[in-house]
Fold:
Amino acid sequence: MSREDDKARMTQLVALLNQYNHEYHVLDQPTVSDAEYDRLYRELQRLEAASPELRRPDTPTLRVGAAPLPSFASVVHAVPMLSLNNAFSDMEQIDPAQRHAELFQFDERVRKTLGVERVRYAAEPKFDGLAISLLYRNGVFEQAATRGDGVSGENVTENVRTIRSLPLRLLGEQVPEVLEVRGEVLMLRDDFERLNQQQAAVGDKPFANPRNAAAGSLRQLDSRITASRRLSFFAYSVARVEGMARPGTHSAEMNWLASFGFPLAPADLRPVLEGIDAVAAFYEQIMERRAGLPYDIDGVVYKVDSRAEQDVLGFVSRAPRFAIAHKFPAEEATTLVEAIEAQVGRTGAITPVARLKPVFVGGVTVTNATLHNEDEVVRKDVRVGDTVVVRRAGDVIPEVVSVVLEKRPMKEVAGADLFSAALEPVESPWRLPAQCPVCGSHVVKPEGEAIARCTGGLFCSAQRKQAVIHFASRRAMDIEGLGEKLVDQLVELGWVKSLVDLYRLKVEDLAGMERMGDKSARNLVDAIEASKNTTLPRFLFGLGIRNVGESTARDLARYFGDIRALFPVRNDGEDSDELALARLNDRLLAVPDVGPIVARSVMDFFCEPLNVAVVNDLIEAGVHWPAEAAPVVAADSPVAGKTFVLTGTLPTLGRDAAKALIEAAGGKVSGSVSGKTHFVVAGAEAGSKLEKAQALGVTILDEAALLALLG
Ligand code: IVH
Structure:
């Protein structure tokens, strides 16, 4: 191909790729596959590598970033970048005119100056990002500058060029010679989450919010870093046009920008509204939608739509008189941590909660904020006495976002002298309590899980209601008539502190309760009495042991026979030795479908003497069940606790029969071979599982050897 051909092809590829890019990133309506895009992109890259001098200024290959700059150059704004005056609302007020008093005052001033009854306002979201000014010359993106002090900012052209949704060349045939567009650079919430996950993965500090992440990314001297950060841009005004007529209203001007390929807020977020009442209603509507938007907004901006009217209104000091930012209540504020407490939830989950010096945030006064779990407290290193950033977004529970480390109370290190003076924090890092703050049972945090839990499920008053409701439920002890509302009352009256108290309830007491007659009281006591006659699987399920559902309860009952076989502590309450625990663990793992997580939950439960005491109390109160058939597991069978994998066709035994025999002897059958497989039983036409077993050195049995092992 000739040089001219190459040049033409490059022009064509740049145009195509920019169009596809706009369809994908702005319109969200791709017309070609990613593979097709990549193919054209690589073709362009090859041509540019061969003839760098033909590289076009609007080529998408420049979006990947360029070599680092020593510093950002300064740019004087041809039209200063002003700010907006703010209006706040008091949402406690009922009357809209009072609730939005500052907004109504703004409208009144506008109407008075214009001498009109009613004004048309263009509304749009107030994006919570960074203002940027973009310069296009003859349709080609030339320069991007930050706001700076409004008069001059920093040249961040190479960084802004990496933003995928930004047009590098204006779409359409007719474009102005000069176009200066203003808008906001921000990071979408999803992109922010992803970035913070990446930061955490490499041990870097997470960003506190999308705005900080966007600011940090935009101010990178190495635009290749910016390119990896996924920023977005939304246009909100036109600052300068040369060589073409401008539309007469702000709303038309926005549509004009959209036709050039600029991303804007979706049309339903930027309506033109007639009069201030419609404006106030829109604000409340957006407030509701705020949490569901893909990006953070901190209010709504209203602009007088007519440009002629805008000109009449003009500017006051550094803000236009024709526009106002109607701010939402701030979602973040800083305050002091007075204490950190461990709260116990209905399921025993332990949540660290920061008690705060009261602070007004998100429209309400906040005194507590969740710290989610121990890992979060450690990661954020929140300590008593710290100044923290608190966030309350919408109806979400307030949370501690980060610590303002510069404000942490410090003291001199003991023993330090003049030469080695050093400071250390007054408070040490927060630790999860070893005992439940409510009931004193031990707290466990299973490996790999974020949530720590109190093990006193049956005893802990924080978990009492939940425990009783579950115990009485149909698939557990099936106590008819003992529903949630009644349990709430019984627990609140202090009549049911432990499950065994149910069996001590008297008709005459119950009959005195709200909405409970003699007859229902008698029926309830009868139902409770009848529940004493139960089965071991129901009873085990009713205890509400974590991860033990009905079917696991059935298996446990069948394999252990006697509930006492599950107690790792002796009846005198002394801890048994580690050996007994290890043995119990082995026996649990021998039960089909019981893996390490369930085994751990069962042991955690029965290791808590308070839980064992409740079980014993229940038995003493008369709860009983028919003896299960002799326990299936012979504790010392050579097969107990071993994992088998079956493959191929055995000569006489069907697969189900072989499985049943292995399980009856306390073994487990698994579907795939791994390092944890003890035996592979191979029959005719055994395939890859056999090969894998051989490779891993797993013992291989034929049917005869299996039967011999099973005795
Ligand atoms: S118009 C004359 N519209 O708010 C000022 N600004 O205080 C023209 N902002 O830093 C600004 N969303 O970056 C306008 N839809 C919007 C906006 C918006 C966010 C920011 C802007 C500036 C600040 C103005």
Q: What stands out?
A: The chain has 24 helices and 26 strands. The CA atoms of residues 65 and 223 lie 5 Å apart. Residues 115-327 form a domain with the D-amino Acid Aminotransferase; Chain A, domain 1 fold (CATH 3.30.470.30). The first helix runs from residue 3 to 25.
